[in-house]
């Protein structure tokens, strides 16, 4: 899932830059936030110091 989301973020960013489309740029920003949350959650799940 993380590889697929990274590719989708890259494609949205590329399309936003090529077409100068603010909607694709906003989509890329929102997907980037989702990607960061996904990776942080997985990292904390495996290396959580709370356990």
Q: What are the defining features of this structure?
A:
single chain, 51 residues, mainly alpha, 2 helices, elongated
- Main beta sheet: strand number and arrangement? none
Using the CA coordinates, give the radius of gyration: 14 Å
Number of helices: 2
User: Averaged pLDDT, please?
Assistant: 83
Shape: elongated
Report the strand count: 0
Structural class: mainly alpha
Number of domains: 1
- What is the H/E order? HH
Q: What is the first-to-last residue Cα distance? A: 26 Å
Low-confidence runs of at least 5 consecutive residues: none
Helical fraction: over 70%
- Approximately what portion of the residues adopt beta-strand conformation? under 5%
Give a quick precis of the structure.
This protein has 51 residues and is mostly helical. It has helices at residues 2-19, 22-47.
Write the layout of secondary structure elements.
Blueprint: H1 2-19, H2 22-47
Helix pairs in contact: 1-2
Overall description:
The chain has 51 residues and is mostly helical. It is built from 2 helices and no strands. Helix 1 (2-19) packs antiparallel against helix 2 (22-47). The chain is elongated, with a radius of gyration of 14 Å. The model has no long low-confidence stretch (mean pLDDT 83).
């Amino acid at each position: 899932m993380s590889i697929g989301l990274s590719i989708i973020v890259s494609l949205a960013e590329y399309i936003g830059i090529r077409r100068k489309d603010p909607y694709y740029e906003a989509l890329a920003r929102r997907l980037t936030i989702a990607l960061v949350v996904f990776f942080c959650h997985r990292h904390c799940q495996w290396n959580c110091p709370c356990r």
